[in-house]
Structures are given as structure tokens and as C-alpha cells.
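Quick one, C-alpha cells below. Sequence please?
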């Protein structure tokens, strides 16, 4: 029997650093066409209710003893995984809000600049924000993510943001040369970071925002005017597909390496090696290193018991500028501006069985359809039938099919698929496909100011000496309480995957 259990994950409400102020002069306001969020506690609670947080379901199928441990990063396609360390290099900017649809116009002063993230396994990333109204979560975990699984996927100006990153600070660290090119006047690291962030926000959020420093503002204007559209950069490392299946005695694959690095190391898990499973090329030659485009195979012995195994590829490399980093929980989406040599990884899983259905299951966010795509293939000799929210789907032997699980914007999801032979796959994250709309002045997104800001302490509100912090308030526990209540009382959906005899019906 195969099963999928669902559990909700409530996202913490935390804060970006920001402050309140004003500035004379205004750029023409452009309304962002995406979802409007952050409009007060009542509306926040209503959004949680509408999102339909899913109650925890009971696992059915593989026993806890035989099930493989769940993958913390779920459907991560590979690359760098990092933890937010805070806003490090910044200066002030002014955001103009409201002014349309009867809303009262206003201004908010907020910091604009570079964040830093610590990479799991070693390395550091510098990023800018591409979701100005969305707060960060303290010590949030971030995953390298393709553009089409974020708000950049539907943004016609996404390529211009990459051009800005490549032609400004910190990629251009000669500030005198940058100032001369932009005609901005003298720049410091702080004002260069602020001007760069402001220019990015104008494209990522269509925000009416300006740098307070006149030289930073001139840099922002030059970057905005000069930007040209560039293609999305390649992933630092990924494996396609992330799951394959077959029978004992076969070489199962291929799993193709995609990487911007010159070379990656290939490591099979110790338990697979003990069972005689090796990672090879198409001719059966063992592989320990690979390059972009290399096809990897799981060589399964004929006498191998039904089961599953994973391989990992890893490299130490600089992550390409322009890669997006999305929060595993709800937190402000980032775009990469610079990278030290960092550890990047990707994993793929093989499942095999002697008879019956043999599934391989992957998942990825589908922003275009507003959900998570569950792709199931079946290399067995019996139909593979699974049920999602009361609807049955049958994957015939040798067939592959994708089913989209609807997920509301900003909704956390967390579900695990288990099967025979210790097969277990966990998928969790937050569907964050649109930038937040501009909140109207007076909405309860607390912003406070202090004389000596401490921007590295992301996600804390009201701390003495903090620069203004946007998106959190003393009412945060109320929102958390609503989420907990929904988990306890909400109607939980349990997705069941089960073995079924061959049948002619497709669904």
C-alpha cells in the first residue's frame, strides 16, 4: 500500500527592518497586479481561514521502522540551502503607499540593502529583497529556487533585475568607477547597496520607492533606465528527474546532472552500497564525479530486496548571480547578488520492486496553476492508483502523470508519501508566487524607529535600538493562535496512495 499523509505548518509572523519617514517628490505609483496582503490583523486572520490550513493526517502504509527519514527540504530541486543572518549593508529608502482607489496616500521609511545568508555546509551569500512588503522570518531557511516557482516567473522585468545585479554593487566593488558610470556622485557601500535595492524593487514589486541619499537615488535611476533583459542563470546544481524507479537487476535512470560548476562529486548512500547498489554510467561503469549533462544510473542487483536508495551530488562553487532564494517557511523572497565558494547539493532517489506497481514521485511548485505538482511514474507491472482529495488517479505500468494539488497563495504545506521497501518522500514549503500588494496607510503592520539600528536581528520587533521593523507586532501571538486553532479544528485532507489491480479506467 502507498500513502500520503498531510500536515500543516503554520508560518511565523516576523519582521523586516524598516522605519517611518517622508520625502518630497514622488514617482508615479504603479499598482502591483499580484495578491494584496498584510492588511491588518483581521484580514490576516481571514486569509489564514481562507487558505485552509490542513490538519495533521495519519500515515498509512510503511511502518515507522522501515520508512526512510523525511527530506527536510522536500521538493528542493537542488543547489544551495542557507539560513538568513540578517540585513548587513544598507541605507534608508522611502516607500510611497496608497493614493489609488480612495486610499489615503502616505510614506514609509525603510532600510534598503544587502542581506547575508549562511550556507549549509559552508559559504556565504549576499542577497537583495524582491518582495518589499513581505516580512522576513528570523533565521529563516532558504532554498535555491527556479524563477518560475517564485514571483519572478510571471514578471516580465525579471531579466532586468539580473542585469542590475551584474552591473552594480557588490558585483561592481569599485565604487568610484560605479559612481562615474552612473553619474551619481560619490558612493559608499551603504548608499550603493541602497540604490541597487531601490532599483530592484521598482522592477520586482513595481514599487514607488526612492533612496533617501541623493547619490543612491541617482544610482537607482541610472540602473532602472539602463537595465536590459537577461536570461535566468543556470542552477548551481540540480538532478533531473529527482526520482526514478525500476526493477531489481536493472540500471535505473538516467538522472541527469545540471550544474553551473565545473565538476560535482557523486556519493551513493552507505546503506545502498551495503546492499550492492552502485551509481554508474549507462554502460555500468561506477561514477564518482560528474559534469553538466552527465547521466547517472542506479545499478540494482538482481537479488536486491524491494526498496529505495538515494544518491547525492555535491560541489563547492560560487552560486550564479541572479538565482532566487525562497523561504522554506513564509519569509521575504531574495535574489542572489554575490556568493563565496559555497557547498551546493542535489539528491535523487530510486525505488525498485520485484512485482506490482513501482512508483517514482516528485513534487514542485506550480505558480501558473496555483498549487504543487505531484508527478508519479510507474515502472512496475501493475497499475498504480492514488487518491487525492477524493479523486482517484491511475498510473498504468510504464506511464507518468502529473496531478496538481491546489494550494492557496502564502499557504504552508507539508505532506509525506510513503510506500513499500522503506520508500518515503516529504514535500513541504510555502506557495509564494506573487509579491505582496502595497498595504494601505494605517494598516496594522507595526513599524518602529530607533537611533541605533541593529538590522542583523531580523524578525524582532520593538527591541531597543532597532531600526524600524515592518510586518510584526505585539499581536503576532494572536495570529499564531488562529493558525493553531485551524490546525486543531480545520478539516484535514489525507491523500491516500494504494496498490490496485490492473484496470481499464484512466481516472
Amino acid at each position: 500500500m502507498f500513502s500520503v499523509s498531510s500536515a500543516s505548518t503554520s508560518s511565523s509572523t516576523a519582521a523586516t527592518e524598516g522605519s517611518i519617514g517622508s520625502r518630497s517628490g514622488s514617482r508615479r505609483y504603479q499598482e502591483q497586479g499580484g495578491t494584496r496582503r498584510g492588511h491588518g490583523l483581521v484580514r490576516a486572520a481571514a486569509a489564514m481561514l481562507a487558505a485552509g490550513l490542513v490538519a495533521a493526517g495519519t500515515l498509512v502504509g510503511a511502518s515507522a521502522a522501515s520508512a526512510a527519514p523525511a527530506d527536510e527540504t522536500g521538493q528542493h530541486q537542488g543547489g544551495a540551502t542557507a539560513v538568513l543572518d540578517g540585513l548587513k549593508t544598507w541605507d534608508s529608502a522611502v516607500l510611497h503607499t496608497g493614493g489609488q482607489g480612495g486610499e489615503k496616500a502616505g510614506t514609509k521609511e525603510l532600510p534598503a540593502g544587502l542581506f547575508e545568508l549562511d550556507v549549509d555546509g559552508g559559504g556565504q551569500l549576499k542577497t537583495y529583497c524582491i518582495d518589499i512588503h513581505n516580512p522576513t522570518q528570523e533565521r529563516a531557511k532558504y532554498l535555491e529556487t527556479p524563477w518560475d516557482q517564485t514571483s519572478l516567473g510571471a514578471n516580465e522585468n525579471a531579466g532586468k533585475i539580473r542585469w542590475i545585479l551584474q552591473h552594480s554593487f557588490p558585483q561592481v566593488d569599485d565604487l568610484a568607477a560605479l559612481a562615474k558610470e552612473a553619474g551619481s556622485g560619490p558612493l559608499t557601500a551603504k548608499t550603493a547597496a541602497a540604490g541597487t535595492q531601490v532599483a530592484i524593487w521598482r522592477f520586482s514589486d513595481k514599487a514607488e520607492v526612492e533612496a533617501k541619499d541623493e547619490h543612491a537615488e541617482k544610482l537607482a535611476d541610472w540602473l532602472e533606465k539602463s537595465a536590459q533583459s537577461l536570461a535566468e542563470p543556470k542552477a548551481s546544481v540540480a538532478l533531473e528527474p529527482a526520482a526514478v524507479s525500476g526493477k531489481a537487476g536493472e540500471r535505473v535512470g538516467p538522472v541527469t546532472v545540471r550544474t553551473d560548476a565545473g565538476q560535482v562529486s557523486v556519493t551513493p548512500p552507505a546503506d545502498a552500497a551495503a546492499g550492492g547498489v552502485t551509481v554508474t554510467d549507462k554502460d555500468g561503469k561506477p561514477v564518482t564525479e560528474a559534469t553538466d549533462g552527465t547521466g547517472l544510473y542506479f545499478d540494482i542487483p538482481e537479488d536486491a530486496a524491494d526498496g529505495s536508495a538515494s544518491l547525492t551530488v555535491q560541489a563547492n562553487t560560487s552560486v550564479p548571480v541572479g538565482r532566487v532564494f525562497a523561504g522554506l517557511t513564509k519569509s521575504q523572497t531574495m535574489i542572489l547578488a554575490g556568493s563565496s565558494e559555497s557547498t551546493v547539493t542535489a539528491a535523487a532517489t530510486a525505488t525498485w520492486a520485484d512485482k506490482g506497481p513501482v512508483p517514482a514521485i516528485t513534487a514542485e511548485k506550480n505558480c501558473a496553476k496555483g498549487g504543487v505538482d505531484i508527478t508519479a511514474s510507474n515502472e512496475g507491472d501493475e497499475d498504480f492508483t492514488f487518491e487525492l482529495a477524493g479523486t482517484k488517479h491511475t498510473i498504468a505500468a510504464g506511464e507518468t502523470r502529473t496531478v496538481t494539488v491546489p494550494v492557496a497563495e502564502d499557504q504552508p504545506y507539508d505532506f509525506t508519501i510513503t510506500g513499500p521497501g522503506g520508500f518515503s518522500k516529504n514535500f513541504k514549503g510555502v506557495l509564494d508566487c506573487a509579491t505582496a500588494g502595497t498595504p494601505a496607510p494605517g494598516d496594522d503592520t507595526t513599524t518602529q524607529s530607533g537611533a541605533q539600528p541593529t538590522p542583523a536581528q531580523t524578525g524582532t520587533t520593538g527591541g531597543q535600538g532597532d531600526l524600524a521593523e515592518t510586518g510584526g507586532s505585539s499581536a503576532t501571538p494572536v495570529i499564531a493562535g488562529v493558525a493553531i486553532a485551524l490546525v486543531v479544528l480545520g478539516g484535514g485532507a489525507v491523500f491516500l496512495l494504494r496498490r490496485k489491480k490492473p484496470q481499464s479506467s484512466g481516472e
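The longest strand covers residues 81-97. The first helix runs from residue 41 to 51.
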